[in-house]
Amino acid sequence: MGTLVLVATPIGNLGDMSPRAIAALQGAALICCEDTRRTGGLLSHLGIRGVRMAITNEHTEMARVEEVLGLLAGGATVAVVTDAGTPGISDPGERLVAAAIAEGHVVSAVPGPSADVMALVISGLPSARYVMEGFLPRVGPDRTTRLHDAATEPRTVVLYEAPHRLVRTLTDLHGLCGDDRRVVLARELTKVHEEVWRGTLAEALRHVADREPLGEYVIVLAGAPPRTAATDDDIRLGLTRELAAGASKKTAVATVSDHLGVAKNRVYDVALTL
Known about the structure:
Blueprint: E1 3-7, H1 19-26, E2 30-33, H2 36-46, E3 52-55, H3 61-73, E4 77-80, H4 94-102, E5 106-110, H5 115-123, E6 130-135, H6 141-152, E7 156-161, H7 166-177, E8 182-187, E9 195-200, H8 201-209, E10 217-221, H9 232-244, H10 249-260, H11 264-271
Parallel strand pairs: 1-4, 1-5, 2-3, 2-4, 6-7
Antiparallel strand pairs: 7-10, 8-9, 8-10
Helix pairs in contact: 3-4, 6-7, 7-8, 9-10, 10-11
Protein backbone atom coordinates (compact mmCIF):
# COMPACT_ATOMS: atom_id res chain seq x y z
CA MET A 1 0.00 0.00 0.00
CA GLY A 2 1.10 3.54 -0.67
CA THR A 3 1.72 6.30 1.84
CA LEU A 4 0.18 9.75 2.12
CA VAL A 5 2.71 12.00 3.81
CA LEU A 6 1.99 15.52 5.03
CA VAL A 7 5.14 17.60 4.76
CA ALA A 8 5.58 20.81 6.76
CA THR A 9 7.27 23.60 4.80
CA PRO A 10 8.87 26.86 6.00
CA ILE A 11 6.58 29.68 7.11
CA GLY A 12 9.20 32.20 6.06
CA ASN A 13 12.80 31.16 6.63
CA LEU A 14 13.83 28.54 4.06
CA GLY A 15 16.51 27.34 6.47
CA ASP A 16 13.74 25.62 8.44
CA MET A 17 13.27 22.97 5.72
CA SER A 18 14.44 19.70 7.24
CA PRO A 19 16.50 17.04 5.41
CA ARG A 20 13.71 14.51 6.02
CA ALA A 21 11.15 16.84 4.45
CA ILE A 22 13.38 17.27 1.39
CA ALA A 23 13.75 13.49 1.05
CA ALA A 24 9.97 13.01 1.32
CA LEU A 25 9.34 15.47 -1.51
CA GLN A 26 12.08 13.92 -3.67
CA GLY A 27 10.54 10.48 -3.28
CA ALA A 28 6.93 11.45 -4.00
CA ALA A 29 5.10 10.43 -7.14
CA LEU A 30 2.85 13.45 -6.73
CA ILE A 31 2.98 16.60 -4.61
CA CYS A 32 -0.42 18.07 -3.77
CA CYS A 33 0.01 21.79 -3.21
CA GLU A 34 -2.02 25.01 -2.99
CA ASP A 35 -0.05 26.90 -5.62
CA THR A 36 2.24 25.19 -8.13
CA ARG A 37 4.22 28.41 -8.67
CA ARG A 38 4.98 28.83 -4.98
CA THR A 39 5.75 25.17 -4.36
CA GLY A 40 7.67 25.03 -7.64
CA GLY A 41 9.86 27.86 -6.39
CA LEU A 42 10.55 25.96 -3.18
CA LEU A 43 11.39 22.76 -5.08
CA SER A 44 13.73 24.70 -7.38
CA HIS A 45 15.48 26.22 -4.35
CA LEU A 46 15.92 22.73 -2.91
CA GLY A 47 17.20 21.30 -6.21
CA ILE A 48 14.23 18.96 -6.60
CA ARG A 49 13.16 18.38 -10.21
CA GLY A 50 10.85 16.06 -12.08
CA VAL A 51 8.19 15.58 -9.39
CA ARG A 52 4.66 16.18 -10.63
CA MET A 53 2.54 18.74 -8.77
CA ALA A 54 -1.25 19.08 -8.58
CA ILE A 55 -3.21 22.06 -7.26
CA THR A 56 -5.03 21.02 -4.10
CA ASN A 57 -6.76 23.90 -2.39
CA GLU A 58 -10.05 24.43 -0.56
CA HIS A 59 -11.93 24.30 -3.88
CA THR A 60 -10.18 21.31 -5.48
CA GLU A 61 -9.25 19.04 -2.58
CA MET A 62 -12.28 16.75 -2.88
CA ALA A 63 -11.82 16.49 -6.64
CA ARG A 64 -8.21 15.38 -6.06
CA VAL A 65 -9.18 12.46 -3.79
CA GLU A 66 -9.80 9.89 -6.54
CA GLU A 67 -6.44 10.51 -8.20
CA VAL A 68 -4.58 10.36 -4.90
CA LEU A 69 -6.29 7.13 -3.84
CA GLY A 70 -5.41 5.57 -7.20
CA LEU A 71 -1.73 6.37 -6.73
CA LEU A 72 -1.76 5.08 -3.16
CA ALA A 73 -3.43 1.85 -4.27
CA GLY A 74 -0.54 1.35 -6.70
CA GLY A 75 1.98 1.66 -3.89
CA ALA A 76 3.13 5.20 -4.59
CA THR A 77 3.93 7.93 -2.10
CA VAL A 78 1.90 11.13 -2.33
CA ALA A 79 3.10 14.24 -0.51
CA VAL A 80 0.85 17.07 0.66
CA VAL A 81 2.19 20.57 1.27
CA THR A 82 0.66 24.00 1.75
CA ASP A 83 2.03 27.40 0.85
CA ALA A 84 3.58 27.59 4.31
CA GLY A 85 3.48 25.56 7.51
CA THR A 86 1.87 22.25 8.38
CA PRO A 87 -0.85 20.88 6.06
CA GLY A 88 -4.29 20.26 7.53
CA ILE A 89 -4.21 23.14 10.05
CA SER A 90 -6.38 25.93 8.58
CA ASP A 91 -5.11 24.66 5.21
CA PRO A 92 -6.00 21.83 2.80
CA GLY A 93 -5.07 18.26 3.71
CA GLU A 94 -7.73 17.17 6.21
CA ARG A 95 -10.06 15.62 3.62
CA LEU A 96 -7.26 13.79 1.82
CA VAL A 97 -6.17 12.30 5.14
CA ALA A 98 -9.70 11.13 5.97
CA ALA A 99 -10.12 9.53 2.52
CA ALA A 100 -6.75 7.75 2.71
CA ILE A 101 -7.49 6.37 6.17
CA ALA A 102 -10.92 5.17 5.06
CA GLU A 103 -9.24 3.13 2.30
CA GLY A 104 -6.69 1.63 4.68
CA HIS A 105 -3.63 3.49 3.42
CA VAL A 106 -0.74 4.60 5.57
CA VAL A 107 -0.81 8.26 6.57
CA SER A 108 2.35 9.85 7.93
CA ALA A 109 3.78 13.32 8.44
CA VAL A 110 7.10 15.11 8.45
CA PRO A 111 6.71 17.63 11.28
CA GLY A 112 8.07 21.11 11.07
CA PRO A 113 7.09 24.78 11.05
CA SER A 114 3.64 25.81 12.28
CA ALA A 115 2.76 29.46 12.85
CA ASP A 116 0.21 28.77 15.59
CA VAL A 117 2.60 26.70 17.71
CA MET A 118 5.46 29.15 17.25
CA ALA A 119 3.31 32.15 18.20
CA LEU A 120 1.93 30.29 21.21
CA VAL A 121 5.27 29.25 22.69
CA ILE A 122 6.85 32.70 22.32
CA SER A 123 3.76 34.57 23.51
CA GLY A 124 4.48 34.22 27.21
CA LEU A 125 0.87 33.14 27.81
CA PRO A 126 -0.03 29.72 29.29
CA SER A 127 0.67 27.05 26.67
CA ALA A 128 0.00 23.74 28.43
CA ARG A 129 -3.64 23.85 27.27
CA TYR A 130 -4.80 25.96 24.35
CA VAL A 131 -7.46 26.20 21.63
CA MET A 132 -6.67 26.65 17.95
CA GLU A 133 -9.49 28.67 16.33
CA GLY A 134 -7.81 29.44 13.01
CA PHE A 135 -9.55 32.00 10.82
CA LEU A 136 -12.88 33.37 12.06
CA PRO A 137 -15.85 33.58 9.68
CA ARG A 138 -15.93 36.99 8.03
CA VAL A 139 -19.58 37.80 8.72
CA GLY A 140 -22.82 36.41 10.11
CA PRO A 141 -24.00 34.59 13.21
CA ASP A 142 -21.20 32.00 12.97
CA ARG A 143 -18.66 34.79 13.45
CA THR A 144 -20.59 36.12 16.46
CA THR A 145 -20.69 32.65 18.04
CA ARG A 146 -17.00 31.98 17.45
CA LEU A 147 -16.05 35.37 18.91
CA HIS A 148 -18.13 34.63 22.02
CA ASP A 149 -16.46 31.21 22.27
CA ALA A 150 -13.01 32.78 22.11
CA ALA A 151 -13.90 35.50 24.63
CA THR A 152 -15.25 33.04 27.21
CA GLU A 153 -12.70 30.23 26.67
CA PRO A 154 -10.59 29.71 29.84
CA ARG A 155 -7.66 28.31 27.84
CA THR A 156 -5.31 30.37 25.67
CA VAL A 157 -6.83 30.92 22.21
CA VAL A 158 -4.87 31.13 18.95
CA LEU A 159 -6.42 32.78 15.89
CA TYR A 160 -5.23 33.64 12.39
CA GLU A 161 -6.18 36.93 10.77
CA ALA A 162 -5.57 38.75 7.50
CA PRO A 163 -4.03 42.22 7.83
CA HIS A 164 -7.05 44.08 6.44
CA ARG A 165 -9.35 42.44 9.03
CA LEU A 166 -7.04 42.76 12.04
CA VAL A 167 -8.51 45.99 13.43
CA ARG A 168 -12.07 44.70 13.13
CA THR A 169 -11.29 41.44 14.93
CA LEU A 170 -9.38 43.20 17.71
CA THR A 171 -12.29 45.64 18.09
CA ASP A 172 -14.78 42.77 18.36
CA LEU A 173 -12.61 40.94 20.90
CA HIS A 174 -12.14 44.14 22.90
CA GLY A 175 -15.91 44.64 23.05
CA LEU A 176 -16.38 41.13 24.45
CA CYS A 177 -13.29 40.79 26.64
CA GLY A 178 -12.76 44.34 27.94
CA ASP A 179 -9.67 46.52 28.17
CA ASP A 180 -7.37 44.34 30.23
CA ARG A 181 -7.36 40.92 28.53
CA ARG A 182 -3.79 40.05 27.51
CA VAL A 183 -3.09 39.53 23.82
CA VAL A 184 -0.08 38.88 21.63
CA LEU A 185 0.16 39.86 17.95
CA ALA A 186 2.74 37.98 15.89
CA ARG A 187 3.57 38.62 12.25
CA GLU A 188 6.27 37.74 9.71
CA LEU A 189 7.36 34.84 11.93
CA THR A 190 10.85 33.44 11.12
CA LYS A 191 11.37 36.25 8.57
CA VAL A 192 13.77 39.19 8.66
CA HIS A 193 11.09 41.57 9.92
CA GLU A 194 9.57 39.21 12.49
CA GLU A 195 7.50 41.18 15.01
CA VAL A 196 5.92 40.02 18.26
CA TRP A 197 3.87 42.59 20.18
CA ARG A 198 2.53 41.94 23.70
CA GLY A 199 0.00 43.92 25.74
CA THR A 200 -3.72 44.28 26.48
CA LEU A 201 -6.55 44.49 23.98
CA ALA A 202 -6.99 48.20 24.69
CA GLU A 203 -3.27 48.76 24.06
CA ALA A 204 -3.42 46.57 20.94
CA LEU A 205 -6.05 48.80 19.36
CA ARG A 206 -3.90 51.84 20.00
CA HIS A 207 -0.87 49.98 18.65
CA VAL A 208 -2.50 49.16 15.30
CA ALA A 209 -4.37 52.46 14.97
CA ASP A 210 -1.36 54.41 13.73
CA ARG A 211 0.11 51.83 11.36
CA GLU A 212 -0.91 49.78 8.35
CA PRO A 213 -1.02 46.08 9.29
CA LEU A 214 1.11 44.04 6.91
CA GLY A 215 1.47 40.27 6.63
CA GLU A 216 -0.76 37.55 8.04
CA TYR A 217 -1.18 37.80 11.81
CA VAL A 218 -1.37 35.23 14.56
CA ILE A 219 -3.42 36.49 17.52
CA VAL A 220 -2.79 34.77 20.85
CA LEU A 221 -5.50 35.67 23.36
CA ALA A 222 -5.21 34.99 27.08
CA GLY A 223 -7.89 32.72 28.51
CA ALA A 224 -10.94 34.18 30.20
CA PRO A 225 -10.74 34.64 33.98
CA PRO A 226 -12.88 32.37 36.18
CA ARG A 227 -16.54 33.08 35.57
CA THR A 228 -18.46 34.95 38.24
CA ALA A 229 -22.22 34.79 38.67
CA ALA A 230 -23.88 36.68 35.82
CA THR A 231 -25.94 39.73 36.71
CA ASP A 232 -29.03 40.95 34.89
CA ASP A 233 -26.84 43.66 33.38
CA ASP A 234 -24.53 40.97 31.96
CA ILE A 235 -27.52 39.19 30.46
CA ARG A 236 -28.94 42.42 29.07
CA LEU A 237 -25.61 43.30 27.47
CA GLY A 238 -25.28 39.86 25.92
CA LEU A 239 -28.81 39.97 24.53
CA THR A 240 -28.29 43.43 23.08
CA ARG A 241 -25.15 42.28 21.25
CA GLU A 242 -26.82 39.16 19.87
CA LEU A 243 -29.89 41.04 18.68
CA ALA A 244 -27.74 43.77 17.12
CA ALA A 245 -25.86 41.05 15.22
CA GLY A 246 -29.15 39.93 13.67
CA ALA A 247 -30.07 36.97 15.89
CA SER A 248 -33.72 36.25 16.61
CA LYS A 249 -34.91 36.63 20.19
CA LYS A 250 -35.09 32.85 20.59
CA THR A 251 -31.54 32.38 19.28
CA ALA A 252 -30.24 35.28 21.37
CA VAL A 253 -31.73 33.81 24.53
CA ALA A 254 -30.20 30.39 23.83
CA THR A 255 -26.77 31.84 23.01
CA VAL A 256 -26.61 34.10 26.07
CA SER A 257 -27.86 31.29 28.31
CA ASP A 258 -25.10 29.03 27.04
CA HIS A 259 -22.28 31.60 27.25
CA LEU A 260 -23.18 32.92 30.69
CA GLY A 261 -24.28 29.63 32.21
CA VAL A 262 -27.68 31.06 33.13
CA ALA A 263 -31.05 29.29 32.92
CA LYS A 264 -32.98 30.11 29.73
CA ASN A 265 -36.09 31.20 31.59
CA ARG A 266 -34.10 33.82 33.47
CA VAL A 267 -32.57 35.13 30.24
CA TYR A 268 -36.01 35.17 28.62
CA ASP A 269 -37.41 37.22 31.51
CA VAL A 270 -34.65 39.79 31.01
CA ALA A 271 -35.30 39.78 27.26
CA LEU A 272 -38.89 40.82 27.93
CA THR A 273 -37.64 44.02 29.58
CA LEU A 274 -35.61 45.16 26.55
